[in-house]
Amino acid sequence: VLDRNGKVLAASEDAADVIATPYQVENVGQTALRLHDILGVPTPDLVTKLGDRSSGFEYLARKVDAATAARIKELEITGVSTVPTSRRLYPQGELAAQVIGAVGTDNQGLTGLEHAENDLLGGENGEQDVVHDALGRPLRMETVEPASVGEDLQTTIDAAIQGKTEEALAQAAEHHGAKGASAIVMDPNTGEILAMANWPGFDPNDLQSATDEELENRATGFTYEPGSTFKAFTVGAALSDHVVTPRSSFYLPPEIRVYDRTIGEAHPRGPLTLTTAEILAQSSNVGAVTIGMKEGATRFSKWINRFGFGRPTGVDFPGEEQGIVPKLEDYSGATMGNLPIGQGLAVTPIQMAAGYSAIANGGILRQPTLIRSIGGQPAGDDTDPQRVLSARVAAQLRSMLEGVLEPGGTASAVSVPGYVLAGKTGTAQKVENGTYSDTKYVASFVGFAPAEDPKLLVAVVVDEPQDVHVGGAVAAPVFGQIAEFALPYLGISPH
């Protein structure tokens, strides 16, 4: 498995299993001592295995390297031999571990791409019929099934960006005592994923020590209420249907009532007047609900579906979650007080990255891709891009999302010298036992740069940060760190 530049992320090398036929072994104690010196297996364990006279087969060591196997052969111990096999190595350590995955003792892919593409990477054993003479010499060999060698898999991941993304994500998650975190870096114009990072991580060379949480690719498997990052789609829908313009002005009371629900702002304020652009920059809940109510439930529901929420993106990764989106017929009176501010529905980080890519690239929704080529041949380009926004509305949204990182915006502390950034913060309360928790939040940020003609998109999701829980303070700085490294690294010039 390779990164986009050919750097090896996972590879197999020749190895051997050391096996024994215990009843053939003559001096168990001496043999155990000699083998311990080479294999490093505790002598008592070897004595136990070699001393079982009823056993016709025991593994003494699995997947030793070729040099070790040669030393075992040189000992010429009766009843001890080696069997050729291969072993999987991960030369970049924990880099992209959840995405690449890991294999079991028998080289079967168990998680990630190793599991999903097991048949492709692993090749197939062949089968031969051999006829022997009375002395056991082969007389005739016939190939029933030829063996096949596995193919190389080149991913779209850039190891350097992946490393920087993991570093920035881990720093933030550890600093804020988070439960977990994920970040996706994409080229919004092609849908190619340059990094897909998760925290906590695990060592693929030591799969048995990993917990289920460490193995999870949260980028495709974590479902959460998006909160305010969803407001960009609310505004995008209303702009597209000519319900508002960027300069439409709204008188906004401190709270708004939708049936049995009263919605206020994150911070108490008096009545004020804001434009559509200011509502997005300042992340006004009352403003977003007001725009959503003007848009209306029927049209809004269509837009949610149009942006791909409620169904898998189709990224090349096994077990992708699809999120949860209420059907129009299941809307209650208060639904349009929830959905426009990103409550009452669940999304995945990869869905948010794909949706924002459509805003970034001029209005085209693309299937995100993780696999670039198989066996040197380009992976099928059947991504079926669809126009979801007009180029004009996409440009209006990009311009408005610049305001989030400008003075007065919810991520005004984040900047990269020389570049104009755009994006949206999100701070969503988690649902516990049917009500919104006052202590558990998901902090997120989705952003892109350069704002006018984006070439880089980053989505950051941090689950249950402890001390501070707002997206502008927890997730937006991670975006800033990644962009500060990746923009010059990719040769993207400031606009």
Written overview of the protein:
This protein has helices spanning 28-39, 43-50, 66-75, 97-100, 112-116, 118-122, 159-175, 212-215, 218-221, 231-240, 276-281, 285-295, 297-306, 335-338, 349-360, 391-402, 471-474, 476-489; strands at 11-20, 58-65, 80-89, 127-132, 138-145, 153-155, 180-186, 193-199, 249-252, 256-258, 261-263, 272-275, 364-365, 371-374, 377-378, 386-387, 422-432, 435-449, 456-463. The chain is an alpha+beta fold. The strands form seven sheets. A five-stranded antiparallel β-sheet has the order 8-7-19-18-17, sandwiched between helices. The chain has a three-stranded antiparallel β-sheet with strand order 2-1-3. Strands 6-14-15 form a three-stranded antiparallel β-sheet, with no helix packed on it. β4 and β5 form a beta hairpin.
Question: What's the helix count?
Answer: 18
Please state the average pLDDT score. 92
pLDDT < 50 stretches: none
User: Tell me, what's the shape?
Assistant: elongated
Terminal CA distance reads: 35 Å
Largest sheet: 5 strands, antiparallel
Number of strand elements: 19
Gyration radius from CA atoms, angstroms: 28 Å
Binned, the helix content reads 25-40%
Classification by helices and strands: alpha+beta
The strand order across the widest sheet is 8-7-19-18-17
Q: How much strand content do the residues show?
A: 15-25%
